Amino acid sequence: MSLEVLPVELLQAILKELCPRDLAALSSISRTIYPVAMRELYTSITLNKRKESRLLAKSLKHRPAKASFVKYLVVGSSITADSDAVKALPDIVKHLDQLKHFEITADEISSKRLTTVIHALKAEQLTHLTLLTDLQPIGDLVDFIVGRHPNLQELHLSPHALCGDKIPTLALTKLEEFVGPSWCFSRQTVKMPLFQVSIAWSAEAPEAGTEDIITSLATSCKDSLKVLCCSKPGPCEELVDAITTSFPDLRGLEISSSVIINSPDTVKRLATSLAKMQELIALSFNPSLVLSDQRRGGIDLLQIVDNAKAIRSLSCCGVSWSKVDNRWVHVEKNC
């Protein structure tokens, strides 16, 4: 049976399994297959240092009809600042009428070029944006993004990015997921339907206070937030206190801290705070938060969650437990 007589839906399912090189080759054998293959080939584009990326970038720049197929664009970390693909980015993105997901992880792109690319995007088109670059600062750029793309549902920024002189307000009323630095919530007043948030405090940004950030975050999404991940230098007690007070209905919590828990008083304080979270079913302490077990004369991690009755999953330092019949059972060790 010829591919040309297949229903479009079935043909699309077949073409999804092909690599870009095979898609390009197949598109040349039939006028019927060509538009379907082109749409599949250009729906999701990743630009990196490979030769195919240079050809795709050139095609997108000079053939706007193909650019109109693109919904997902990733600029990979392996790409260099002087590559033809990076130089052409501002001209490429202005033709991407259907673009919804845009991701840049290339550290070598200059701040000026990155700003030019973001400004070249059509207004109000993005729903997902990822900027995982080490460019500093990005406060002004985030402020522009918020004003330009109010329909964002996911926003991922480098967690350790510095703000600069301008602290933006995340006035994104459709935002459901956020990853980035804590200062993004230092002046938050707008309600957002955030479901999952991952924030990091930087030792170089002391103005982002623990309680103020968590309180500001609660102002925007106290009723909707279910999963919270926090990374912060120093002791974690104040952070846990603020979280349990502001978000008693969290379902998942991950805490990353750089301080060893080796004090019974600290354990008691954490246990008291976590006991307030009646909906919490999953708790994770990042491996940088080191706890030792009783057999070594240290602290028993399970004491911390002893009164948090809803928790069913617990992990710390690469070790995981699950609660079965009200007993903690060791699951696996990852490190």
From TrEMBL:
It comes from the Eukaryota. SUPFAM superfamilies: F-box domain, RNI-like. InterPro entries: F-box-like_dom_sf (IPR036047), F-box_dom (IPR001810), LRR_dom_sf (IPR032675). Residues 1-45 form the F-box domain. It holds the Pfam family F-box-like. This is F-box domain-containing protein. The lineage of its organism: Eukaryota, Fungi, Dikarya, Basidiomycota, Agaricomycotina.
